[in-house]
């Protein structure tokens, strides 16, 4: 079987990036005709959280004069059609109702509300199902969604900028801007793509970041700060009430305006408790923007999935040493004056 239509479905799915979380990105292509002579009669993707799923949009796109072709159609959908009533009715029911011929998928839905029951419904209705087509691409596309359900924690991205000689910050002038304007803009786009951004205590205090999206259009993530002893000043930008902030600490649980303080237990690992709490809040991904203490603790605990490192041409001579990169190199590209390298955490790293 040619992968052409599934590749198209995967491409359509990406159009939902930044708009569908905590739902997965899903694309769907409906074809008619025998293998070799297949022709696309419908296409759709999940466009926005809470709105129609990919399969429904694809069915709706079929021209009325071609609707009679559905019993001889193949539905290529990147994820198992859902079987439950959520914000949307079950896609499996819709496909059964429209009598589609065959369903081909990349992945089973790890959401326990679905988890095989979508396929079960289709098979019971006599619809042939094939899964595992372009499985790796499907998992890669929704790495956040799969990590969330399989590991019961958010997908963790570590991001930093380092000087040509490997420093993440200066000593005298700490907040020296290491990466260039284009990199800065790219980071703002990344912020729109993740559910949350996290920083450690020193970064919150010394850099006073706003951690919102300003340079590109898109949604603001939830802000997360670690402040174990509640030493951070309320006047910091993170506590400006412009968007939600979660403050993890050992002292209190309380909500003040847009800031929610969450108390963790001192006798258990802090980061594990924090990630468990984020899981409970259905936060599927966290972009960690520093500093080195937090990044190194996550690295040591093996609690990371992806690392994005900007290396600027600037030489600092002295400063705070950047974390040591590790993992599997997946890409290297030039972003303005900086070089961006991306690593992923493969088993064993
Ligand atoms: C599909 N097709 O395009 C998507 C699916 O609250 P709801 O109704 O939007 O359901 C969300 C869940 O449905 C989500 O967690 C995931 O399991 C599945 N997403 N399923 O058949 C789609 N986006
Ligand atoms: Zn669905």
Automatic annotation (TrEMBL):
Known pathway: Cofactor biosynthesis; riboflavin biosynthesis; 5-amino-6-(D-ribitylamino)uracil from GTP: step 2/4; Cofactor biosynthesis; riboflavin biosynthesis; 5-amino-6-(D-ribitylamino)uracil from GTP: step 3/4
Keyword Hydrolase: yes
Signal sequence, renumbered to the chain: none
GO terms for MF: 5-amino-6-(5-phosphoribosylamino)uracil reductase activity; diaminohydroxyphosphoribosylaminopyrimidine deaminase activity; metal ion binding
Sites where the protein binds Zn(2+): 53, 82, 91
Active-site residues from the entry: 55 (proton donor)
Keyword annotations from UniProtKB, A to Z: Hydrolase, Metal-binding, Multifunctional enzyme, NADP, Oxidoreductase, Riboflavin biosynthesis, Zinc
Binding site for NADP(+): 161, 207, 291-297
Similarity remark: In the C-terminal section; belongs to the HTP reductase family. In the N-terminal section; belongs to the cytidine and deoxycytidylate deaminase family.
NCBIfam families for this protein: eubact_ribD
Protein name: Riboflavin biosynthesis protein RibD
Organism encoding this protein: Spirosoma taeanense
Name of the gene this protein is made from: ribD
């Amino acid at each position: 079987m040619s992968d052409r239509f599934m590749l198209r479905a995967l491409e359509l799915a990406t159009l939902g990036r930044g708009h569908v979380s905590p739902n997965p990105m899903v694309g769907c292509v409906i074809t008619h005709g025998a293998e070799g002579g297949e022709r696309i009669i419908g296409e759709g993707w999940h466009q926005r959280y809470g709105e129609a799923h990919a399969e429904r949009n694809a069915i709706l796109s079929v021209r009325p004069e071609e609707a009679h072709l559905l019993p001889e159609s193949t539905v290529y959908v990147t994820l198992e059609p859902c079987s439950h009533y959520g914000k949307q009715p079950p896609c499996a029911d819709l496909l059964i109702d429209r009598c589609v011929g065959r369903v081909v998928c990349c992945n089973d839905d790890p959401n326990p509300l679905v988890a095989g029951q979508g396929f079960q419904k289709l098979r019971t209705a006599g619809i042939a199902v094939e899964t595992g087509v372009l499985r790796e691409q499907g998992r890669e596309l929704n790495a956040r969604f799969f990590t969330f359900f399989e590991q019961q924690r958010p997908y963790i991205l570590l991001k930093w900028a380092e000087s040509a000689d490997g420093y993440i910050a200066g000593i005298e002038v700490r907040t020296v801007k290491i990466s260039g304007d284009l990199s800065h803009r790219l980071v703002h786009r990344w912020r729109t793509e993740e559910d949350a951004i996290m920083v450690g205590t020193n970064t919150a205090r010394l850099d006073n970041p706003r951690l919102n999206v300003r340079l590109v259009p898109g949604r603001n993530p939830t802000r997360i700060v670690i402040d174990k002893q509640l030493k951070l000043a309320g006047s910091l930008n993170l506590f400006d009430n412009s968007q939600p902030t979660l403050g993890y600490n050992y002292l209190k649980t309380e909500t003040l305006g847009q800031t929610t303080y969450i108390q963790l237990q001192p006798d258990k690992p802090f980061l594990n408790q924090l990630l468990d709490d984020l899981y409970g809040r259905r936060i599927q991904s966290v972009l960690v923007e520093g500093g080195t203490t937090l990044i190194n603790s996550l690295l040591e605990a093996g609690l990371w999935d992806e690392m994005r490192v900007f290396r600027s041409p600037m030489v600092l001579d002295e400063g705070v040493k950047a974390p040591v990169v590790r993992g599997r190199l997946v890409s290297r590209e030039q972003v303005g004056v900086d070089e961006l390298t991306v690593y992923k955490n493969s088993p064993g790293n």
